[in-house]
Amino acid sequence: MSFRFTVRSTDGSARVGTLETPHGAVQTPAFMPVGTQGAVKATLHRDLADSGAEIILGNTYHLFLRPGDELIARRGGLHRFIGWERPLLTDSGGFQVFSLAERRVITEEGAEFQSHLDGSRHHLTPERAVDIQARLGSDIAMVLDECLAYPSTREATAESMQRSVRWAARCRARLTEFRDSAGLKAGPTLPAVTISNGGQAQFGIVQGGVFPDLRRESAEATVAIGFEGYAIGGLSVGEPIDLMYSVVEDTARVLPADRPRYLMGAGTPEDLVECVARGIDMFDCVLPTRNARNGQLFTSRGRINIKNAKYAEDDGPADPDCHCYTCTHHSRAYLRHLHLAGEMTAGALNTLHNLAFYLDTMKRIREAIKLGIFDSFRQEFLRSVSRLSHDS
Ligand SMILES: [Zn+2]
């Protein structure tokens, strides 16, 4: 295995570490920009790398439907296809399938769904999710899990969590077959699976909603199966923020200290800092990129909405403390004009800034942990980012 995680220093529950993957190292805590269709929207890979992104995420659901995992495998895997030679993580496709609501049916076997593109029918099983990600060749693949809506009853959450554990075991069994046989041979019932990345790691996902004992049960059962890392799923789906933080804290505590912990789908800049404080090493979220396209900028002094009339003649940069291309070249007045004029450049410049802010925040978090001053950094950060947070 060319995958390794090393904790370098700790400060309380916060930790700095290094993830080594077949495509290079990632310093943690890390933020992973979301590259849904093999591209982080409105951003060039070159600018992502320059902003300090060491790993990006690809969405299996979208890539499976278009252009197709087999086509990508024939191009040498996702890294080569999209021209990104740094680490990549892929999700299992489950989250998008579960979001299809009326267009999907869940059974013990897996999820049957209809494509949002053309209505075609597909069956996503735990084994299939592993096969697709093997063809994509990401450095980190995720198991297929069931994502429940919030709120859900305890009974429904328990049942779903236990199914996710059974699916996780099936995913691990499939990956183990690959590792044992260096790729499965085609057979009467088995399609050939091209392994695009022989060093691919696989992460398990802890579910259990907002019920501490179900979270603990899920964590113990998932750790018993054994994965290279562990994610906390099913959060940031509408539960109160304090509840999310307490679930993260309780769950991180029962996950092994020598494996990376990944909080899926969160969050705001405040969430990054608060969840690092609770022992999280990896994050992904569409907020910085999606909000950028809607004109919302995250800054060191809180969020600003560039559409606001008060920025019409504001010659200052989006964030006076930021060194990104957008902030060193353009004014709020110009960014507001581009946004209102519907220029594509507005999305590009805003995204560049928001990602720079997120990635710079992670860097400052890592530095504060190494210096043993994370708690004072955290207090100061929360004070300053909330200053303008009501600019809407
Ligand atoms: Zn900036």
What does this structure look like?
- This protein is an alpha/beta fold and 392 residues long.
- The protein is 42% helix and 18% strand.
- It has a nine-stranded parallel beta sheet with strand order 4-15-14-13-12-11-7-6-5. The protein has a three-stranded antiparallel beta sheet with strand order 1-2-3.
- The longest helix has 28 residues, at 154-181.
- The chain is globular, with a radius of gyration of 21 Å.
- The mean pLDDT is 95.
- Zinc ion (ZN) binds at residues 318-319, 322, 324, 326-327, 353, 356.
- Zinc ion (ZN) is lined by residues 318-319, 322, 324, 326-327, 353, 356.
List keywords for this structure.
392 residues; alpha/beta; nine-stranded parallel sheet; three-stranded antiparallel sheet; 15 helices; 42% helix; binds zinc ion
